[in-house]
Hints:
Elements: H1 6-23, H2 30-45, H3 50-71, H4 75-110, H5 125-141, H6 149-157, H7 159-162, H8 170-178, H9 187-218, H10 227-258, H11 276-282, H12 285-296, H13 306-324, H14 328-346, H15 355-374, H16 378-390, H17 396-401, H18 410-419, H19 424-444, H20 448-455, H21 459-474
Helix pairs in contact: 1-2, 2-6, 3-4, 3-5, 4-5, 6-8, 9-10, 9-20, 9-21, 10-15, 10-16, 12-13, 13-14, 14-15, 15-16
Amino acid sequence: xxxxxxxxxxxxxxxxxxxxxxxxxxxxxxxxxxxxxxxxxxxxxxxxxxxxxxxxxxxxxxxxxxxxxxxxxxxxxxxxxxxxxxxxxxxxxxxxxxxxxxxxxxxxxxxxxxxxxxxxxxxxxxxxxxxxxxxxxxxxxxxxxxxxxxxxxxxxxxxxxxxxxxxxxxxxxxxxxxxxxxxxxxxxxxxxxxxxxxxxxxxxxxxxxxxxxxxxxxxxxxxxxxxxxxxxxxxxxxxxxxxxxxxxxxxxxxxxxxxxxxxxxxxxxxxxxxxxxxxxxxxxxxxxxxxxxxxxxxxxxxxxxxxxxxxxxxxxxxxxxxxxxxxxxxxxxxxxxxxxxxxxxxxxxxxxxxxxxxxxxxxxxxxxxxxxxxxxxxxxxxxxxxxxxxxxxxxxxxxxxxxxxxxxxxxxxxxxxxxxxxxxxxxxxxxxxxxxxxxxxxxxxxxxxxxxxxxxxxxxxxxxxxxxxxxxxxxxxxxxxxxxxxx
Length: 487
């Protein structure tokens, strides 16, 4: 089920909120927890009930590992259980996400003819697998207690963060679930949650989906792009991905607040970063935290010399690239970031004196790297880079701008088509520049939660939120999935 759908907003969410707080009035919290798990499973299985069996099997396996760790004191057996837990989770992820990629590359390298299987990628498998991996590791380390089955079920299946994060830790979620303050709704929490949800909803529907009109059309047309249009498509994709994913996270965190939970922040103005290292402190922060805690530090971090640190950094970003998808484009994207991190580690002083210049260089690198991330093949990404640097000028930029045909500009388009067709190209270019300006203003402005906290309760803020929600809700005929559902 999508957050940006009528059934979620008009049916699912009111039922989930109403049932949750109604059952919280009981002395026994178990019915409310069971209800939340049931609603989360409905949310997850709405698109494809088959995925439910995979999620439930994964949860049962990891909960079983936790039970055995609770009953085992021997060091060797505990290490065996940890290895079993890690291999089981990674094995599940490998089969559903990477098996065909592995077979395809084996066929290429060894001139084999192994047939590929029809394997559907379950929604959110990368997220709920990493979340459970963190739990198993922390259980082995003795940092968290064994959870009750209902607490564990809520922790893993809680629908706002289930399919695209943020990646939540046990110690962040379960204590909130067990707190007695959860027993009754907070008017402030509900309002703050609704405000944050609306802002994320507007990011996704009004911005990300509009930017996608250009990106999706022109990524199928790369060979005909000139330099200006190639950069235009690349920049629009960066903005699309940011507003799509940060919009999802705002919606998820807003939903968490409605239910009384504070989910971790996942974005901190990442497009203002002045280095790649700074970018990864700000972008997908819970993934960066996971990779730091469970890959970088166990490998030795920066404790074993500069050379070993560089190797560890590169490996972390190689893992990040592989995590994002089973394609060489993701692997190379991860390698690009790994090499950039190594460069910044080896040459920390090789920077401009002006922050704006460092931000510009970082933005250019990130934009080119996201081109590799978005491309279907490595050759397509290389072709896009060639067009960006040696594409010349053939006027196709006007055609790129012409993709911006959406309901909001329909009346103006028709007026110009009827009375001043010569101004249509200028109109589309103006649309592109206005949309670009809005994106730049938003990425340099306050974060959604900051705006909601400072302006959300003012008369102007309430009017703005009501307008954005109505506008976005009426645009749901163009519903699209979130980009990170694919990762």
